Amino acid sequence: MGQIPRNLQGVLWSVDVKNLDIESDKNYIIHQILAYGTWKNLKWLFKTYSESQIKIAFLKYPSKDYRPVVFNFVTKILFGLKQLPDERYYVTTYPRIIG
User: Fold this and answer.
1) Residue 2: what pLDDT?
2) For a 10 Å CB count at each end of the chain, is N or C smaller?
3) Measured CA angle at 65 (ends 60, 69), to 5 deg
4) Which range of residues forms the domain containing residue 58?
5) pLDDT category, 20, cuts 50, 70, 90?
6) What is the average pLDDT across 13-31?
């Protein structure tokens, strides 16, 4: 799959991109880019992972990083989901759910 470009460091801020593995860290990479990335970052994401891989990471491994407007963009426009996942597991304005 290749290496993660240095220009993604601003989106993947919690780890040096040199220390990320495209396969084993894909859930983190996918969520960070969906939640905080630019169009250029999204293009890289969809070139690197299939739409199916991205959807699976988004739906099976929720991350509470999304602002409401970004959550709506990802679910309704980017993925065209008819049945939306529970936004309490994604949107930062909700209290954290443990368990």
Assistant:
1) 76
2) C
3) 100
4) 6-89
5) very high
6) 96
User: What is d(CA 35, CA 19) in angstroms, rounded to the nearest whole number?
Assistant: 21
Q: Which residue has the tokens 């220390």?
A: 19
**99 within some domain:** no
Question: What sign for the dihedral angle of Cα 87, 93, 96, 97?
Answer: negative
The span from the CA of 65 to the CA of 32, in Å, is 8
Residue 1: inside a domain, yes or no?
A: no
- The domain total for the chain is 1
Label residues 20-46 b or e (16+ Cβ within 10 Å = b). beeeebbbbbbbbbbbbbeeebeebbe
0.85 cut: is pTM over it?
yes
For residue 13, the one-letter residue type is: W
Q: CA-to-CA distance for 79 and 3, rounded, in angstroms?
A: 25
Q: Which residues pair with 66 in a beta bridge?
A: 91
Q: Is residue 75 part of a domain?
A: yes
